[in-house]
Amino acid sequence: MNPLELTLVRIGFLAVLWLFVIAAVGVVRTDMFGPVSQRRRRSAGRQATLPRQSRPRAKPVRSARSAPQQLLVTAGALAGTSLGLTDEQITIGRADDATLVLSDDYASTRHARLFPQDGQWLVEDLGSTNGTYLDRQKVTQPTPVPIGVPIRIGKTVLELRR
Amino acid sequence: MSFTASSEQPVPLPHGRRGAELLMLAFALAVVLFAYSAVGLGLTGKLPGLPVDFLVFAAVMLAAHLAVRRFAPYADPLLLPLAVLLNGLGLVMIYRLVQSGRGGNPGYQVTGLPPTAATTQLLYSGVGVVAMVAVLVLISEPRVLQRYTYTLGALGLVLLALPAMLPASHSVVNGAKVWIIFGGFSVEPGEFARLALAVFFAGYLVAKRDALALAGSRVAGIDLPRARDLGPVLAAWAASLLILIFETDIGTSALFFGMFVAMLYIATQRTSWLLIGVTLFLGGSYLTALMFHHVMERFTVWLHPFMGSNPTGIAYQPVQALEGMAFGGLFGTGLGAGQPYHTPLVQSDFIFAAFGEELGLVGVMALLLVFGLLVQRGLRAALAAKDPFSKLLVGGLSFVLALQVFVIVGGVTGLIPLTGITTPFLSQGGSSLVASWILIGVLIRVSNTARKPAPQPIQDEGMTQVVRAA
Q1: Rounded to 5 degrees, what are φ and ψ at B181?
Q2: Which residues of chain B make contact with A34, given a CB cutoff of 8 A?
Q3: A6, B4: Cβ pair inside 8 Å?
Q4: Chain A residues 46-105 within an 8 A CB cutoff of chain B
Q5: For residues B259 and B243, is the Cβ–Cβ distance under 8 A?
Q6: Which of B169-173, B302-306, B443-447 bottoms out in mean pLDDT, i.e. has the lowest?
Q7: What per-residue confidence (pLDDT) applies to B23?
Q8: Which carries the bigger pLDDT value, residue A52 or residue B359?
């Protein structure tokens, strides 16, 4: 075994070790975004059916002081749970893919959603059976949600908190 | 309570993925075989034959894969292969250390690594895999563990305290009073106590987190908990200090306390617990350093390893490790071509230095990434888990795995004061290896439950069920 061959083995082993790491990262990637073929199809389909997504989204105007930072569940089975608010909408319902999954018999599968627009959060009822209430008012159209005002969905009460 | 981070559409999760697991497992075994061959080439210059030990190792791990396929078909596909790679590389390194240097140079081995060390470690790998499969078989749902919250809590405390109670002849190895020794057979109960206490903390915090998270006052932008809610964290702190004092084991106490604080933080999402925890730990460490000579010595070794007579005296071991890693440089000396056997106890606490010497910075970075991926998959399982108990348990266990790697690798490389704990999967030692495999078993079980597709709804979608027959 001459030194050159030993060097090749040495570097080769490091290369294989790194290949393993890269392959592992590849598995993680597939796990998160689905297989490559499926990913392409999905993104193509999205552009065709949802042109809204390709429009440049207006940056949400947010001042650090007045904007709500989290959604807090104040009553119901999930009381005490809080969700950090991002720029993404929050779907609420009994569906497994909802952002906030309720185990509330009086909630619908896809009950309501909260979404940010022009620096404030709006609540919209998604055609639920038992309705969504902002304070005492039934929500019939997307309505801005002030901080600290209770949103009632079935037996669950939610609030935006700073 | 499932907070999916996905943006617009839910990603169709490729369920199962046992094929990917088998492929990665084969890859891991190939890397291990390559490492074994490289050791043979480096030591003797000849390619060694296919060893029986490797075949046994491969067979055991394939059996583990089949068990996962049978008992946890939706589990994360990476957990097993990553653990197999680390365990295999640890075995190869121990085998390599048994051979010492070229031409049979015995080197400096303070404990005298027995010639059968690699085979013994292989045996423990097998025991570990059996323990992992037992976890998968016995715990069909993670919430089953929740029933044993207090039983396991008590068990954990007993295991933790046992070495302190036993006479030194039955509990001290190399100055650390953390063992139970009976008739030539030794167990480090702290490794298992950590798992039992993680279950206890998770069960306890699920029950108590509302009080810990919501009550309290706000001072200078930090939510302070009520004084009476501080009780448990103070109790955990006191217990970890007692371990430190009576078992002279800084590492275990740091892991134990770190795990508790991290789980408290996960449960309550309150930064104040982190601040309180870190303050308590730093204060406690400072006080014990002032009170106890051997703790102070660790700080001296950390801050001044090369000062005066330290390199040949109290800092001999870390200095040998540092010189070995410096000798390895960027690409290492190659497996079997370095001299890691100059460091005392290199097969256990300092095995990372041996990897640093023979694989270089490039190699240990890859190893750290493998640990990082393992932790990431664990945290991912915690995020995907639906019940808060599993979330907390797996979040805490993943964190403590990361903390363990940080504490020992940081100690070996001189980033933080050195504490004698094992490197998960790599170090020689049965207790640590078996405990690590049990941890993998819990991660696999929780990730299986979290990734299992939801049963098809029988009812029409969109309909609201108002009345449920009691």
Answers
A1: -115, 125
A2: 11-14
A3: no
A4: 46, 50, 53, 78-83, 88, 96-97, 99-101, 105
A5: no
A6: B169-173
A7: 93
A8: B359
> Is B86 buried (19+), middle (13-18) or exposed (0-12) by CB count in 10 A?
buried
Burial of residue B389 (number of CB atoms within 10 Å: 0-12, 13-18, 19+): buried
Do the beta carbons of residue B110 and residue B345 sit within 8 Å? yes
Average pLDDT of chain B to the nearest whole number: 83
pLDDT on residue B10: 45
CB burial string B218-240: b at 16+ within 10 A, e below: eeeeebbbeeebbeebeebbebb
Please give the helix or strand (H or E) that residue B443 lies within, else none: helix B430-451
Q: What share of chain B is helix, strand, coil (3-state, %, to 5)?
A: 70, 5, 30
- Chain A residues close to B17, C-beta within 8 Å: 27, 31
Tell me the β-bridge partners of A138: A133
Q: What pLDDT sits at residue B110? A: 45
Q: What percentage of chain A's residues is helix, strand, coil (to nearest 5)?
A: 30, 25, 45
Q: Check residue B447 and give its pLDDT.
A: 93
Cα of first residue to Cα of last residue in chain B, in angstroms, is 24
Task: Determine contact, residues B58/B5, Cβ cutoff 8 Å.
Answer: no
Residue bearing the bigger pLDDT, B415 or A79: B415
Three-state SS for B312?
Answer: helix
pLDDT 10s digits, B195-254: 998 998 898 888 877 777 666 666 665 666 666 666 766 777 777 777 767 776 777 888
Q: A44 at the B interface (CB within 8 A)?
A: no
Helix (H) or strand (E) holding A90, with range, is strand A90-93
* Cβ–Cβ < 8 Å for A85, B47: no
State how far the alpha carbon of A115 is from the alpha carbons of A125, B313, B461, in Å: 11, 65, 23
CB A27 within 8 A of CB B376: no
What's the half-sphere exposure (Cβ side, CA atoms, 13 Å) at B108?
11
pLDDT number for residue B116: 81
Q: Which of A62-66, B254-258, B265-269 has the lowest mean pLDDT?
A: A62-66
In the predicted structure, residue B411 carries a pLDDT above the cut 80? yes
Strand segments, DSSP code E, in B54-152 are none
Instruction: Take residue B146 and report the two structure tokens written for it.
Output: 């929740």
The whole-number average pLDDT for the span B297-303 is: 88
The one-character DSSP state at B72 is -
CB contact under 8 A, B370 and A21: yes
Q: Which residues of chain A make contact with B24, given a CB cutoff of 8 A?
A: 23-24, 27
Task: With a cut of 70, say whether residue B351 has pLDDT above it.
Answer: yes
Residue A63's pLDDT band (cuts 50, 70, 90):
very low
Q: Is A25–B373 a contact, with Cβ atoms under 8 angstroms apart?
A: yes
Provide the whole-model pTM.
Answer: 0.77
Radius of gyration over every alpha carbon of chain B, rounded to an integer in angstroms = 23
The burial of A49, by beta-carbon neighbours within 10 Å (0-12 exposed, 13-18 middle, 19 or more buried), is given as exposed
